[in-house]
Write a structure and sequence with these properties.
Layout (H helix, E strand, L loop, with lengths): L17 H9 L8 E3 L6 H12 L4 E3 H21 L8 E4 L3 H13 L6 E5 L2 E2 L23 H5 L4 E4 L8 H6 L5 E4 L9 H6 L4 E4 L14 H10 L7 H13 L20 H10 L5
Parallel strand pairs: 1-2, 3-4, 3-6, 6-7, 7-8
Antiparallel strand pairs: 4-5
């Protein structure tokens, strides 16, 4: 309501299963113009969202997945511009294979990152096909072989994306990355590496989930405007094209003159954001 003048009701559901949750949400369709899902873990979040999208005629959007993907995708676009990288050449290490990590990796591929250039870690290490008992949804980004530890895989890498837990990355790991390394260390409240520590080790750009450092990667930059556009445009779903348009619109709010290492994305309270994102989303609604 405050960010985009969208009327909302927060509803917490006490359900015992994925099926019960889906059934409960479906009964609300006549009342609401859209559904923003929040705080649902993987893999249940994938099942819930995909089922609701297929079976409901209003937009359904899981913010932990797509909000994170869109705003960090916008940050990636501007980081590439600032460091002179082509997105199709960017190599990425992702730590955290939950809802947000999977969605970000998929979205980066939609932006142009090559799937083979993404190495993903979960709590047990690198995701590769020779691991036993690997969850099926993780196979999408599984390497053929075990390529080693996090420290091994960060050597020569352009971008580190952290959606996991505190203090996983050392200064030596940062030093081993490619020239002008970019780190989005987004664990909260303590990131995988503190921004000042990463900068001291040679990081060019550092994004974080915290508000007390530059380049806060905050979902509130994305989802209010996305729903504003979807609702005003009478969309029945939020498509990949709408998400990509939102990311490009967010990135575009930082002018060439403003763009620098400590300002690669608009701030959460920038009054332009919701309207610009809304317009981008509406222009990509398919009837």
């Amino acid at each position: 309501k405050n960010f985009a003048d969208v009327d909302v009701f927060d509803l917490c559901l006490k359900t015992g299963s994925t099926e019960e949750f889906i059934a409960a949400v479906k009964t609300m369709e006549p009342t609401f113009g859209g559904i923003n899902l929040e705080d649902i873990k993987a893999p249940e979040c994938f099942i819930i969202e995909e089922t609701l999208k297929k079976e409901m005629g209003i937009p359904v959007f899981h913010d932990d997945q797509h909000g994170t993907a869109i705003i960090s995708g916008a940050a990636l676009l501007n980081a590439c511009e600032l460091t002179g990288r082509r997105i199709e050449d960017v190599t990425v290490v992702v730590v955290g294979a939950g809802a947000a990590g999977m969605a970000c990796a998929r979205f980066y591929c939609a932006l142009g990152v090559k799937r083979e250039n993404i190495r993903m870690f979960d709590s047990k290490g690198l995701i590769h096909k020779k691991r036993s008992n690997l969850a099926e949804y993780k196979l999408e980004f599984a390497q053929e072989e075990d390529l080693g530890s996090l420290a091994d895989c960060m050597k020569g890498t352009d971008l580190f994306l952290g959606l996991s837990t505190k203090n996983l990355v050392s200064q030596d790991m940062v030093r081993s990355m490619a020239d002008k390394p970019v780190l989005f260390a987004m664990a909260n409240p303590v990131p995988e590496i503190m921004p000042d520590v990463a900068k001291a080790a040679g990081a060019r750009i550092v994004g974080t989930g915290r508000s007390d450092f530059p380049n806060q990667v905050n979902n509130v930059v994305a989802f209010p405007g996305i729903f504003k556009g979807a609702l005003e445009g009478r969309a029945t779903q939020i498509t990949e094209e709408m998400k990509l348009a939102a990311a490009e619109a967010i990135a575009g709010l930082v002018s060439d003159e403003e763009l620098n290492d400590e300002f690669i994305m608009p701030e959460a309270f920038d009054p332009r954001v919701a309207q610009v994102v809304s317009e981008a989303v509406r222009s990509h609604i398919v009837r």
